[in-house]
Specification:
84 residues; 3 helices
């Protein structure tokens, strides 16, 4: 799947989820919002397993988490730029 397709699908899904996310997290303290997002991220990472290879599983999860955080940082810059 190309990066453009990933971005397109992510934008569609994000728009669909935004009403639910806004209702669930809106007005909650930042620490609660962060805890919810951390929990969901942990669920996502726990779903990535290399069978019978704990070291490979740990490496895969570290790589995914690192790429995820890099993506988040890029998106923060993107959204900051949209507010200007």
């Amino acid at each position: 799947m190309s990066n453009d397709e990933i971005i397109r699908q992510a934008e569609i899904i994000s728009r669909e989820l935004m009403p639910v996310i806004s209702k669930a997290l809106g007005g909650k303290p930042a620490m609660v919002q962060g805890a919810v997002l951390a929990d969901l991220t942990a669920i996502w990472l726990a779903g990535h397993v290399v069978r019978d290879d704990p070291a490979a599983t740990a490496s895969l999860r570290e790589d995914l988490l690192s790429a995820h955080v890099d993506g988040i940082r890029s998106l923060v810059d993107y959204y900051d730029g949209r507010r200007r």
